[in-house]
Amino acid sequence: MSSVKTASVIASESASRNPYASFLGARNPMRVLTATPARLGKLIEGLTPRQIGRRPQPDKWSIAEVVAHLADVELVYIARCRWMLFEENPALVPFNQDNWVQGWEREREPIAETLLRFQVLRRSLLRLLRSASPSDLARTGRHVDYGTEQVSDYVAKLAGHDLNHLIGIESLRKLMLT
C-alpha cells in the first residue's frame, strides 16, 4: 500500500512534464486511475449504439472513439512502463492517436469489448504500479519527442489524461441525451 502513496507523491513532482496537470490538480493520481474504469462504464451506460457512435461534429470524436482512444493509450502506456521497469533506459516509441482510432474503426471492435479491453489493461497497470518501489517509479526511458521520462511521469500523465477525456465524454453524453 505504501507504493500507492509513493506513486502519488512522485507523480506530483513530475507535474511539470505533464500536459494534463491542470486536469489532475491536487487529486491523487492513483485514485483517479483506480476510479476511471467504473466512471467510464457509468458514462456510457444507458446510451444507444447510435448515441455512442455519433460524432458531435465531423472533426470531433464520438464517445466510442474516445473510449477506443483511452484503451489504445492504456496499451501504449502500460507497454512503456513495462519497458522502463524491466529494461535499461529503453527507447519509447510515439504513436499517432488519429491513425489508431481509424484502425479501431476498421477493426470494428464492439464498444463493450473496447471498454473491457480498457478495464483489463487498467487493472494490469494498477497491479504493476502498486508493486513498484520508489526506485522503480524513478526508472527512465527515452521518448523520441519528449526526452527522458520516468515511470512516475506516466502515473500523473495518465490520470490527467483520464480526467480530460471523462470531462469530454460527460459533455458528449449530455449532448446525445438532448
Give the topology:
Blueprint (H helix, E strand, L loop, with lengths): L1 H12 L7 H4 L4 H16 L4 H5 L9 H24 L4 E2 L4 H11 L3 H20 L3 H4 L2 E4 L3 E4 H27 L1
Parallel strand pairs: 1-2
Antiparallel strand pairs: 2-3
Helix pairs in contact: 1-9, 3-7, 3-9, 5-6, 5-7, 5-9
Description:
By secondary structure, the protein is mainly alpha-helical. The protein has one domain: dinb family like domain (Four Helix Bundle (Hemerythrin (Met), subunit A), Up-down Bundle), CATH 1.20.120. Helix 1 crosses helix 9 (151-177), helix 3 packs parallel to helix 9 (151-177) and helix 5 (63-86) packs antiparallel against helix 9 (151-177). The protein has nine helices and three strands. Helices cover 69% and strands 6% of the residues.
Write down the overall geometry: globular
Compute the average pLDDT. 89
Detail the poorly predicted runs: none
- Number of H- or I-type helical stretches: 9
Please report the first level of CATH classification, the CATH class: Mainly Alpha
- Helix and strand composition category: mainly alpha
How far apart the termini lie comes to 43 Å
CATH homologous superfamily - what is it? dinb family like domain
Largest sheet: 3 strands, mixed
Keywords:
3-stranded mixed sheet; globular; 178 residues; single chain; Four Helix Bundle (Hemerythrin (Met), subunit A)
What would you say about this model in short?
The protein has helices at 2-13, 21-24, 29-44, 49-53, 63-86, 97-107, 111-130, 134-137, 151-177; strands spanning 91-92, 140-143, 147-150. With 178 residues, the chain is mainly α. A 3-stranded mixed beta sheet has the order 1-2-3.
